[in-house]
Amino acid sequence: MGERESAGLGHPLYSCRRCRNPLALNADLISKSYKAKSGQAYMFRHAMNVVIGAKEERQLMTGQYTISHIFCSRCGDEMGWTYVTAFDATQKFKEGKYILEKAKILKEY
């Protein structure tokens, strides 16, 4: 059983829909109530196997932010974004969190 556990089997994770590159663990899922250009999106505490793009200022539904788009490190597909800075004090909890678009990810076991 040790080999199976170390491979992460049995623990749900989210992968890139295009190339199956693991991106986030189910244990790091914070919320499923975010919106992105493709529709529903999920917020995670951490993301892995992503490349973080340049910072940019963005006006989103809940205020002004500095964000960086995130890309799959294997296939380069844009997956969502990470919050760098929230200018509204009530939104500071988002800083350092990752948004992955539901249309771009698969839940795997």
UniProtKB/TrEMBL annotation:
Domain Yippee: 12-109
InterPro entries from the UniProt entry: Yippee, Yippee/Mis18/Cereblon, Yippee_fam
Keyword Secreted included in the entry's annotation: no
Swiss-Prot/TrEMBL keywords: Metal-binding, Zinc
GO molecular function: metal ion binding
A Pfam family reported for this protein in Swiss-Prot or TrEMBL: Yippee-Mis18
PANTHER family the record matches: PROTEIN YIPPEE-LIKE CG15309-RELATED
Family as reported in the entry's similarity comment: Belongs to the yippee family.
Protein name, UniProt field: Protein yippee-like
